[in-house]
Amino acid sequence: MLEQLNTERAHGRSRNLLVAATGTGKTVVAAFDYRNTCRKEGGRPRLLFVAHRDEILRQALRTYREVLRDPEFGELLTGAHQPTRWDHLFATIDSVSSRELVATVGAEHWHTVVIDECHRLAADRFDAFAKAVRPSVMLGLTATPERSDGQPIAPYFDARPDGSPAVELRLWHALDLQLLAPFEYYACDDATDFSAVPWDRPGEREAVDNLVTGNDVRARLVVSEWRRLASDARRSRALVFCVSVAHAEFMTDWLNRAGLPAACVVGTTAGEERRRAPQRLHSGELCALVTVDLYNEGVDLPMVDTLLLLRPTQSPVLFQQQIGRGLRLAPGKESCLVLDFVGQHRAEFRFDRLLSSLTGLTRRELMEGVEAGFGSLPPGCHIHLQRQTREQVLQGLRSLTSQNWRRLKTELQSYAALRGRSDVQLADFLHDQALDLEDVYRSATGQGRSGWTALKRDAGLIVSEPGPEEDYFSRRFGDLLHVNDPRRLDLMVAVGEQRGRLPALRTEDALAAQMLAYQIDGRHDQAAGHEAFVERVARHPVVAAELVELSALLQARSTLGAHLVPGLEDTPLCLHAAYGAREILTAVGWLTASRRVPFQAGTLPLHIRKTELLFVTLDKSEGYHDRIAYHDYAISAERFHWQSQNSAAPDTPVGRRYLESPANGWKFQLFVRPRKGDAYRACGPVALESAEGDRPMSIVWKLLTPLPAHLFREFSVLRGV
Q1: Distance, CA of 348 to CA of 345 (rounded, Å)
Q2: How far is 378 from 172, CA to CA, in rounded Å?
Q3: Separation of alpha carbons 313 and 342, rounded Å
Q4: Tens digit of each residue's pLDDT (9 = 90 or more) over 569-606
């Protein structure tokens, strides 16, 4: 991680976002990064470390002192601590705000500012501070970059050229690298009925509290399952997460009466008792700390080897934070036992979001794991869903993957009744109802109704007469969900906002408009210029508005920088962006306003350009006949193994075109997709490194621009291992 951060420094990017999995030592990385800065600066530039709690600051101060080997480094600025100087501060955000620190000492006073748990940045006080301060280096640390309210934190920082954070090591990657203790996760059957709980709405906590506090049946189940699944529950070092203080006190009493010594540690617990509690747990005097929200984040308790999740939640952030408390490595600790008491939920409960935050698996991969076992987890990790829970989770996943249009319509009608018919936006509806774009844009599933305009009309939110192509456009917009090129997204907004009155476009913008037209109009007989397409959209005001809303959502989830593909700078293609085949063929001039011909080959030589496009599908298990068995994969971020078509050999014109490059003037562009139906990624120009074999030829290409880390993981030879 530090190596990646140093690389970003070398490229001159000064404000960086560090996204690290819980338990991987984010503060240690930040401290070593600061030590490197000290060496370069020839001294100790002013440092401000900001967090939201005193405990985090004390731990961070200890870390910096150890890394710098200076026991006198830094001072605390909290409600109870007043520094003598203002040069190296470890301050709570409350103290920074209440003392108007930035205004007092100056926005540029500190060279380095570190914001811990920076997923809080969109909150008022953190937001005001981050926008006011002007350091040379601003480093954000968080294990959960996705905020529960959907507000992005990436705009506060400079991204890498590919749009990703400076350093990113998510929970499942850290487990793969064995930087965290593996987990054994058991979803335990629990008869408690949570189906009436208003998840993510006012009253959620109170409703859960009423169901679990005083519930002796559930408490007895918790004790029984803990004893059954742990080798020796009394020797555990457990954290028990509860929903309220009353629930925590109730469970503490239950555990102590069961012979499992526990202490209740909540926000109102006396300071000395709170400080002593982890020591008592570590010594074995206690086998459990029972808490509410206190140990969710920013606390280092490496001895914890057992987690009891007694507070059901729909929040992936909270879920991952709680899991992370038990994954610190510690001497003698082999793994962390996680007991999640799931309860009974209505069909809309989003199990997929929780399990994805733990495993990094897609919804489809989760379904396969629940049905057939989780065979692709990191080393030492295990997930077991008890029978009742397994059926409930599987039913929920199946209902999500085949989202019923009628249910979506009912959801939208209910949502509009609460928010007002004229105030329903696609982004708000998806976020508030915990839905994905793919739930609304269902054209890829082959089902009948699809699209935001179609859904609103079916829900009675649009009463005007529909235009002749309204259903067609709304459905076809489902073929745009892969778009992440910022220039094309701006063009899509312009098409929607201008309502047919687009000004004269530059050549590359006209090409981008033609790409949009042909991605929407997918049939070969729909040859026409982009002007005609824009006019058709303009005749449907609600469709034009939908295109603007969809573009804004795609822009919000895109982290890609606008860098043209080297060698194709005269086209709108953006390096590492996602494209459908028709979009690529239009961009390079193969498809034009008057010429649309079928294309299904894996390569396209453009003789005028002397450039050949290589279209690669990594997983050929679906949609290809048995004789197609090429082995294509990324060897490293800079090298890609590719097998030619069966007709290519060293003595054929095609084979010689590869082998004699670049002396023969031919250049090659690589486009890769994981499987049929996915969008291709524009990987840029490649050059011949080596070749062997005959019909097909095995060629190793060197990429002139290395793959970003996330694409290398997706395209790697190890992707299926």
Answers
A1: 8
A2: 7
A3: 9
A4: 999 999 999 999 999 999 999 999 998 888 887 899 99
Burial of residue 420, with CB atoms counted within 10 A of its CB: 0-12 exposed, 13-18 middle, 19 or more buried: exposed
Distance CA 304, CA 161 (A): 39
How far does the chain reach from its first CA to its final CA, in angstroms?
Answer: 24
Closest CA to 439 of 493, 400, 385: 400
d(CA 443, CA 463): 23
* Residue 381 clears pLDDT 70, i.e. is over it: yes
86 contact partners, CB below 8 Å, separation of at least 6: 101, 105, 109
Q: Give the residue among 592, 589, 559 at the shortest CA–CA distance from 574.
A: 559
Tokens of 498: 């201008």
CA-nearest of 288, 348, 349, 357 to 319 is 357
Q: Omega before 662 cis (within 30°)?
A: yes
Q: Which two tokens stand for residue 163?
A: 């749009």
Report the alpha-carbon distance of residue 262 to residue 248 in Å, rounded. 10
Q: Which residue has the higher pLDDT, 527 or 298?
A: 527
Q: Is 420 left (phi over 0), alpha (psi -120 to 50) or beta?
A: left
Q: Taking the model in full, what pTM does it have?
A: 0.59
DSSP state of 467: P
pLDDT digits (tens, 9 = 90+) for 487-497: 899 999 989 88
Two tokens at 158? 């400079």
